[in-house]
From TrEMBL:
It is found in: Membrane. This is Thioredoxin domain-containing protein. CDD domains: PDI_a_family (cd02961). InterPro entries: Erv, Erv_C, Erv_N, Thioredoxin-like_sf, Thioredoxin_CS, Thioredoxin_domain. Keywords: Membrane, Transmembrane, Transmembrane helix. GO terms for cellular component: COPII-coated ER to Golgi transport vesicle; endoplasmic reticulum; membrane. Its main location: membrane. The keyword Transit peptide does not apply. Pfam families: COPIIcoated_ERV (PF07970), ERGIC_N (PF13850), Thioredoxin (PF00085).
Length: 329
């Protein structure tokens, strides 16, 4: 037995076939090396879908949205899904904050705040019969606006549109209010402005809805002078009386007017809408609409531009959970 056998010399001779196979082997090795290095350096994205094992039928949606040009009274959160849920003006678990012209929170508008009902007078005769003893409402246009305030210290104005059903319902009540204030001799003129004939003027006055009822003193809207409550003669008269009492107090204590005005903006402020919704785990959507149960929106002044500050799903993580996640590589 020989452990040191030698290869015959004839097997050591080079051949064309051997050289060709050697070149092919080197090429394969080089190609493999290049492809492996390329795969190592290349980023690879893998998509994986995991089935949610949560047994609950609803999903929590958290949101924080700001609308710089929409009043909180007209910001309605609506919900819809494919199994038939259609809910308008959702208020549960939702907060609203008034924003100033710089987008800064100024006044808390409430949580779970539901839109209140507005009562209307229905016992007044037709407007034509009420005009039998004269027209008591001052119907003015843009050119007559300044003259009206020069002759009257206090003016209560209805900005309306003839096509607006709410404005039509208010017309007789507004005439009755003018008669009532004349009888009481309160020194308040009751006026009306047609925003169809005076479109540019109403746009400059920032009239966002019809009817818009505002109380003016020497041509300037008083603090919280926009009326949004019952449209009855009794309620409107009570509002005017309280405003006159407030103005008398402000005459005696001017600093009170300044302090009150600091928390109020004459322009239509914006609104911050935040909170969460519990939605069914089916296709659907939620959206914020400009809507009012007792007004018609002025489309020329309706601006739904908004900023999404936060949008997430599920129960928000606590600070401790966030800190724990930050420690995980």
């Amino acid at each position: 037995m020989d452990f040191y056998r030698k290869v015959p010399d004839e097997l050591k001779e080079a051949s064309r076939t051997g050289g060709l196979l050697s070149l092919c082997a080197c090429g394969v090795v080089a190609l493999t090396l290049v492809t492996e290095i390329g795969a190592f350096l290349r980023t690879e994205v893998r998509t994986k879908i995991d089935v949610d094992t949560f047994a609950g039928s609803q999903l929590r949606v958290n949101f924080n949205l700001s609308f710089p040009h929409l009043h909180c009274d007209y910001a309605s959160v609506d919900l819809w899904d494919k199994i038939g849920r259609n809910q308008a003006n959702v208020t549960q678990n939702i907060e609203k904050w008034q924003l100033d012209e710089d987008g800064v929170k100024r006044m808390y508008q409430g949580r779970n705040r539901r839109a209140f009902d507005i009562d209307h007078d229905v016992h007044h005769p037709p407007i034509e019969e009420m005009h039998a003893n004269g027209v008591h409402v001052w119907h003015v246009n843009a050119d007559e606006w300044e003259g009206l305030h020069e002759h009257h210290e206090y003016v209560f104005v209805d900005f309306y549109a003839p096509w607006c059903l709410y404005c039509q319902s208010l017309r007789s009540t507004w005439e009755a209010l003018a008669e009532e204030l004349e009888k009481r001799d309160l020194g308040v003129a009751v006026a009306a402005v047609d925003c169809v004939d005076n479109e540019a003027f109403c746009h400059d006055m920032k009239v966002q809805t019809f009817p818009t009822l505002r109380f003016y003193h020497h041509g300037e809207q008083v603090n919280e002078g926009e009326y949004r409550f019952d449209r009855t003669v009794a309620a409107l008269t009570d509002f005017v009386t309280r405003k006159l009492e407030s103005e008398n107090i402000y005459r005696q204590y001017p600093e009170a007017r300044v302090a009150h005005a600091a928390n109020w903006n004459t322009d239509h402020p914006g609104c911050l809408v935040s909170g969460f919704l519990l939605v069914n785990r089916v296709p659907g959507n939620f959206h914020v609409m400009a809507h009012s149960r007792h007004h018609s929106l002025n489309t020329l002044r309706t601006n739904l531009s908004h900023t999404v500050h936060h949008l997430s799903f599920g129960v928000p993580l606590t600070d401790a959970q966030h800190r724990k996640l930050a420690t995980i590589d």
